[in-house]
Amino acid sequence: MLAASSGWLPNSFFESLEMGFFRIGQGAAASSDVPDAVLIRPMAREVLYQRCDDSAWPVSNPHHLQPLRFEFRVLPAFDMERQQQLLPDSLSSFVYNSSEVSLTAAGQGFSLRSRASLISRAARASSQLAVELDMSQAASGHAGVEMNITGDGNGGILFLELDTGDDRSPLFFPIRNNFVGRQSVFIPSHELAEDLLPADLVSLTGLLQQAPPSPSTVRSVSLGLFDVPLGTSMVVESARAVANVLTPLSDPVISVFDDLTGEVLSSMTLQGCIPSRQYVVYEGGSTAQLLDANRHARATLAVQGVASQPSGAFSVSVKAGQAGTCAALASATPHVRAVWTSLGEEVTFSAATSDPSPGSSTTAKPPDSTTPASSPASVLAAGIVFKVQGLSFSSLVADPPLQEAFEELVRGVLVAAVKAADLAAEAPSLQLSAGSVIVRATIASSHAESLVAALNAQREELRGQLLRALAELEGLRAAGDFMAVGPLHVALTAVEQEDEITAEDVAQGLSTLEATFLGLALGAFAAGLAVLVWVLRQRWMQTNRESKKVSARSQSITSAPSAKVSTRTSQSTDLEASRAASARSQELEVQLQAMQLELKKLQSEHSLTQTRAETD
Q1: Partner residues linked to 97 by β-bridges
Q2: Are 155 and 228 in contact (CB under 8 A)?
Q3: What does the pLDDT look like over 6-32, one tens digit per residue?
Q4: Average of pLDDT values for 153-177?
């Protein structure tokens, strides 16, 4: 770093490098010795050992939407029918006890238990072999090993180490203790150790970072635990070596899936033959680079289709082509060591770059275009997605009390993680979906970016806490069943949020609402009363008309002196009816006048209520 030695780079440049992987370039140089600027791009990197059979594997892109970027190294295929016992029968009497770890024989395997905390350190139980173990099938450096492992989910790593006893690096096969129960574990390459263990901890296991050629004979065997807490217990059974089959990878199809729905988002095909042990590198565009075993450029492969990686969690698969340039030569389905990468925004450091002033943040954080835009209707949050394998979604939701206990347990673990980060945040919200059980949690916070960083720093610890807590939940699984918590994907997201309602808003809203309802009620009552007045008025008019008819008939009868007795009787009846009708008419008229007065009063109150509502 000539530029660094010149002294013009700010401290924030070196602090930025501590944040993770970066790609570094340099700007135009004023002289041939010292560049005038250094360019860095934050890079996310995940290493997976995948079989090219179209199986989907989880990956996370913490940056923005961009082309899929990857590097493959083609590993052998493995003939699962051609297996041999890896550990000799003489180890059946292998017993080991120390202050740190104990090992006892258990059936066709061994039980290991940590007797002390082994955080950031390893402890082994080693045994010399009376007869050297033939590992000639491992001459290619990619011997596969299959074992039955029972884990307790306490985290850390169990390892099997095969040593030649000379200066060469041992074959080292690590298994993460991130599941509960018994399952078959297949390790396609001892090189997995270099990717699984943190670079600064590799030396603690006795591994060399640049491993010499693998041994063909083994003189000692070790079983051990690394980075585990006190009381961790694991069982190793039926370790078998699996024969290698060197085979090329023909015309691989790479697909990107939605992590929750399983929907194919995009796909691409590399057109060509990739021999075993060689590399292919793709950075976007219409071509990929084929490199030999020493990483020297060998050829260019055409790319058909365009594959993009979304921001956040997604899944990827690699499928060997069934037809093409070398499909006939491919006798089996190979594995690949796949390195999936994504890049953030470029940041330039130059002589003009200054460190933050005292009291402000001291870390030069590269701008990240993945930060969701915050609007008045949304708030930033930490989004966490993970899968609980070995658990049936349909069985879980069919038991509401168990589902409630499951969700409460997950919330409790996340709340404890937020509390440990000493950041203010809202209660986690959860959404469950099928695919074993996929959990999507969001935690809204005014410190969302800091919360995402804190949760990312403790992803493995969180994963172990979730697994151990779920394994202890009564009714969640039957004894001996396998259950695991998949990788946690943590990213910044945005959630919709309703506008905050104050007490004054509530009071004003209620006042307006009350006035509106009162106005409507008065209006409806006044309208009903008006109809009633109209009906009464019609009845009064009809009664008045009938009264006048009876009076006229009565007058015509009394003016005829020769009327018969029957007519006199009718006259008397009509006179009585006339008097009754007149009285009824007067009564109706009084009621009508009273209702008209009440109607005018209600109309006045209704107008006053409307005026007040408009004023408020």
Answers
A1: 102
A2: yes
A3: 455 555 555 555 545 656 665 554 444
A4: 80
Given a cut of 90, whether residue 113 has pLDDT beyond it is yes
| Section 353-360 average pLDDT | 47
- The dihedral sign for the CA sequence 177, 179, 185, 189: negative
- Report the distance separating Cα 170 and Cα 155, nearest Å: 24
Query: Which residues, listed in sequence order, are joined to residue 492 by a DSSP beta bridge?
Result: 382
Q: Quick one: pLDDT at residue 207? A: 45
Given a contact cutoff of 8 angstroms between Cβ atoms, the answer to whether 155 and 484 are in contact is: no
441 contacts 489 by C-beta, under 8 angstroms: no
Q: Which residues have C-beta within 8 Å of that of residue 269, sequence separation ≥ 6?
A: 251, 252, 253, 254, 303, 304, 305, 321
Q: Which residue(s) pair with 309 in the sheet?
A: 66
Q: Tokens 């892109």, residue?
A: 61
Confidence (pTM): 0.61
pLDDT tens-digit map of 210-232: 344 445 577 788 889 988 899 99
Strands (DSSP E) found in 107-190: 109-114, 122-134, 144-152, 157-163, 171-176, 179-187
**Cα(537)–Cα(539) distance, integer angstroms:** 5
d(CA 238, CA 234): 14
457-514 tens-digit pLDDT: 888 888 888 888 888 887 775 544 677 887 787 877 776 655 555 555 555 554 555 5
Q: Residue with structure tokens 């030069």?
A: 364
Cα separation, 388 vs 438, in Å, equals 6
- Residue 496's pLDDT is what? 64
The CA radius of gyration of the chain, in Å to the nearest whole number, is 42
Decide if 409 contacts 462 (C-beta within 8 A): no
Taking alpha carbons only, the member of 450, 387, 391, 451 closest to residue 415 is 451
Q: Residue 164 burial by CB count (10 A; 0-12/13-18/19+): exposed, middle or buried?
A: buried
The dihedral over CA atoms of 254, 260, 262, 265, expressed in degrees to the nearest 10, equals -50
DSSP annotation of 35 reads B
Q: Rounded distance, CA 258 to CA 438, Å?
A: 12
Q: Do 135 and 216 form a contact (C-beta atoms < 8 A)? A: yes
What b-and-e string marks burial along 63-91, b requiring 16 or more CB atoms within 10 Å of the CB?
Answer: bbebbbbbbbbbbbbbeeeebeebbeeeb
User: What Å distances lie between residue 582 and 549, 555, 575, 586, CA to CA?
Assistant: 11, 15, 11, 6
β 157-163/217-226 pair status: antiparallel
Residue type, 30: A
Angle in degrees, CA 391, 393, 395, rounded to 5:
85
Contact 29, 36 (CB under 8 A): yes
pLDDT digits (tens, 9 = 90+) for 52-104: 998 888 888 888 889 999 999 998 888 888 887 777 777 777 888 999 999 98
User: What does the block give as tokens for 42?
Assistant: 């934050």
Average pLDDT over residues 324-342: 79
Task: Give tens-digit pLDDT for 419-470.
Answer: 888 888 888 988 887 767 888 888 988 888 888 888 888 888 888 888 888 8
Locus of tokens 């009390």: 401
Please state, in angstroms and rounded to a whole number, the distance separating the CA atoms of residues 51 and 186.
11
Could you tell me the two tokens for 73?
Answer: 């190294």
Neighbouring-strand partners of residue 101: 114
- Cβ pair 301, 293 in contact under 8 A: no
